[in-house]
Amino acid sequence: MPNPSSPRRLLALAASHWLPRGYLAAFIASALAMFLFPTTDLAWIPTLLTAPLSFLTVFLPFGPGSGLDTQAGVLANGAWVALLLVCALVNSAVLGHIVTRPATTASAVPSHSSAPLAQGGTDGARSASSRGHRLRTLLAPALDNWLARAYLTVVAAALAYFIGVTWVGPDSGYSAAYPLIATGPLGILVLVVSIPTEFLPVAWVNPVVFSAGTIVAGLFNAVFIGRFAHTLRTREQR
């Protein structure tokens, strides 16, 4: 049986589960809200929902702010939304592939349940070693392939820019946008959690909380990307 073409496979994965379908519906609703209420600050929502791929659209010469009063402005914003739609389809296809793929067995993970446990400090040492092994296994997909490593490089550069602007020079208020977009959509949750810390009397708490959340969100996305890269590599080898 011939394999379907890449665009058809992309659309099939994007509509294969309620989770990617809900993600696409949220993106379409945010894009419509942006055009229906152009005077509000809703232009960043479609970008955040389609991160991290939408991070590339930051370097485009058109997008939000191009103006809708001219034909060129309408075409520019339309092209920008079309590019974000492609990013949303790719993200939803990856999400659909992850949630619909067959569950992997745990046979590759060594089991130590049958081994006798020593008393006293040996139990604590083995427990700590087991937790460290599980953590290394969990983070392995974020570091053992070039795709996830490239993504982590982008996150590190965005976070370094935010830290540099925050601690060295005057913050223009937009430095947090780069790590926010790079780690989206989890970056939205990081932003929401860090907002209350802005009202604390200690000024350094907010940048630290936001930076820590950015690292966690970046690692989570990198693991997600790495697992997808492994699945594609396994499929190509078959």
Q: What does this protein look like?
A:
With 238 residues, the chain is an all-alpha fold. The protein contains nine helices and no strands. It has helices at residues 6-14, 18-36, 44-49, 71-100, 121-139, 146-167, 177-182, 186-194, 205-237. Mean pLDDT is 74; it is low at 103-118.
Relative strand content: under 5%
H/E element sequence? HHHHHHHHH
Count of helical regions = 9
First-residue to last-residue Cα separation? 15 Å
Q: What can be said about the biggest beta sheet?
A: none
* Mean pLDDT level: 74
List keywords for this structure.
single chain; 238 residues; mainly alpha; 9 helices
Topology:
Elements: H1 6-14, H2 18-36, H3 44-49, H4 71-100, H5 121-139, H6 146-167, H7 177-182, H8 186-194, H9 205-237
Helix pairs in contact: 1-4, 2-4, 6-9, 8-9
